[in-house]
Each structure stands twice: as structure tokens, then as C-alpha cells.
Amino acid sequence: MKSKQFNIFVLVAFTALAFPMVMGWIKKDNKPKLTGIVINNVNPDSLLKQDKGLWFSGEYQTLKDDYNNDHWAFKELYVRLNNQLYYKAFNQIRVNSFVLGKDNYVYSEGYIFSAFGDDYVGEQKIVTKLQKAKVVQDSLKKKGIDLLLVFAPGKGEYCMEQIEDKYKHPITHTNYQTYISNSTKLGLNVLDLKAYFQKLKPTTPYPLFPKFGHHWSYYGECLSVDTIIGHIEKLHHCDMPDIVWNKIDVVDTSRSRDADVLKSMNLYKNPEQNMKLAYPEVMFEQDTLKNKTRVLTISDSYWYGPVYMGVGQNCFAGGQFWYYYNKIIPNPSPTEKVEVWQLDLKQNIESNQVIMLLYSDGNLPSFANTFIEDAYELYTNPTAYYARVARTKNIKQFEKQIREKPVLLKKSTKKSQDLQIPLDSAIKLDAMKLAGVI
After folding, report:
1. How does the average pLDDT of the chain come out, rounded?
2. C or N terminus of the chain, fewer CB within 10 Å?
3. How far is residue 113's CA from residue 124's CA, in Å, rounded to a whole number?
């Protein structure tokens, strides 16, 4: 009797262990539909046919393990169930660097630190960057080009009331305060959207930041675009196409990017959103005579929304968006992804009438990335600039290779998490290793 029970137990255990593997063979498409997770889609079996050396070096086995880990039959289900457990039982979300606040508000933890000045880089560093920005602004002005610095609001500061109390403390200095005060002293062209949002906050009829979104709401985005267009018109003494809306849909289920973090939470069952969000039916003035002021926007992810809205084509005369001064949108080549370092910087700057640097407060520690430093060196010491570009070209090529290959990107992503450094820094370290620099 005991032997029979034991055999049944072994059979059940074996079936449970083998079931995912069997389903992996049966299911044709095992790619998990998860948001924000790098998935390796390259089956190393295809690589092995081209290079038998992968087997003997042991690289094939490592790649196959990584591929199988991403494509086993129940990965999506188990990830969602695991995330649901953490969300319900421990009030945690399994999104890198994001946390839950009060009343289900989600925050990038970095934006909370920014709101309370925990990421303050110091006045000297900020002043040095702004002094270089003033030189760039003056150099471009001689060519009829205006430089504009736009400081966008972050959710941490705007929705401070919903932040958990453990993060709160008296505020001494913030990067935003130092940037604003010194930009004014130096005579830089500035648009303070952060102050504009705070002015609207007591009276706005619709939320400017959604609960489950990281960026400003679609409604806040529309107000920002309208304000930016008006500001550029005054700065550059030009007339640009207007953005208008006559109707606003108010709904309780998010559209556009208003629940972008919720998607990345990859839950088994999403919570109710219970927030009325506004969606203006946007139209752009169709006047080709007005749409002649080409604006190049260098920004963080906050500018993706206006890009999706069509601002670049309809208002900025086809001006590009350089995401973190790296990715180019729209991509200028039909055959390959082109990054900013591959361009002739001087030629591309001077093909625009306005250069707009728009960064939210959580990204002010790396405001404009290295654009200001590059442009400063380009216009003050072009020989040194071009020599440096030539020296670093090999590393930049490896960085691009890492960003485009999921296998390499996953390794850099893990390094960034293990070392607690930005992903770009981890990619650079790996690129320097590939280039033989370290």
C-alpha cells in the first residue's frame, strides 16, 4: 500500500516538473507578453549553425540557458502571479526603481529623492554647466539660433502629499532651485514649467499627473505644449502653428501614457484606476507658412508624449527629438538605427532655429546629458572636440551594439542593478571592456 502511494506521489511530482517542459514543446510561441523586461529573442541554435566554436567555448550553453529562461511556457503567468503577491501582500511593485505611495500613487524613487534634494549635485557643478550653456547660447545667437532651457515638473514634487512619510524630511537645497536661480543670474533663456504646474495645481479641473503614470497626464502634456509654443514664439520672434482643442473627453480609464507604470507592473489583475482623467481632442493649425521654425528637442522621456501627439511635424517644422542626447526620433536612416554621436554635431545644430533642452527635475543631476559640454567645446575649441570624438568612437560603437542586442543589454542591465548605477554607466563599462580599454 505504501509502495503504491509512493509511486503515485513520484508520478505526480514528475508530471508537475515535466509539465512546463512539455508545454514548451507544444506551444509554438512562448515569448512572454511582459512590459519593461528585456527578452532575448535570439535562439542560439541558429548561431551554432554558423559558429561551431560556441559549443566548445561554453558560450552556447550560457546563451541557451538565458534563452530558455525567457521562453519557458509559464514565464508570463508566474511573473504576473509573483508581482501580484508582492503588490497585495507587501504593498510593493516589481518595477525597477519605482515604489508605491499613499492611495495607490506610483513614483519613481529618484523623483522622490529629487523633490527632497537627496540627489543634490552641488551649486558649483550646476553653475559650471550653466556658464558653459551661456557661452553656447551666445555662440548660437550670433548664428540666429536660440537656446532654450525648459525645466519640467516631476511627479515626486507635484504629488508630494501622497509620498510615504519615510521619505519626507526638511528640504535644504534642490537641483531645481539652484538651476533656476543661477540661470536667471546668468541671463539664460528659461521656461519654468515646474512653477507653471504649481500655479495651476489649486485650480486645475483635471489631474496634471495620474496615479499609475510616471509622466505628466495627457491633459498636462497639452497645456505644456501650448505654453512651450507660446514661449518659443516670443523668444525667437516667430509665429508657429497653434495647438487647439474644442472638446475634452473625461474618463476613468487611462489612455495614452497615463498608466505607463501600471503596464510595467505586469500584474495578474490590475487595480481599479478610480481617477477622472481628461483627454482633449487636439488639433494643430494647418499653416505651412507658420510651420517654418525648426526646433531640435533634447530631452528625457517627458518629450515622448508630445512626439506621439505630432508636435515635431505639425509645429516644429520636422525638428528631431534626441532622447537623452542619444537616440534620434525620427530615425534619419531607413537601414540602420542612428545615434547622435554618429552625426555631425555642428551641422545638425545649425540646421535648426531653436535648440530646446527639456528635462524633468528627477533628471537634473545629468541635465542635457553631455550636450552642453560637447557644444561648448565644439564652439570654443573645435580641434580638441574633434580629436576627442575620434578617440571615443570605438567605445561608442560598442555601446550601440550593447543597446541593440538583447543578450548584451540584459548583462548590462543586471550589472546596473548589482552595482546600483545608471544603466548608461553600466553599458559604458561593458563597452570599455569590449574595446579593451579596461
Report:
1. 90
2. N
3. 20
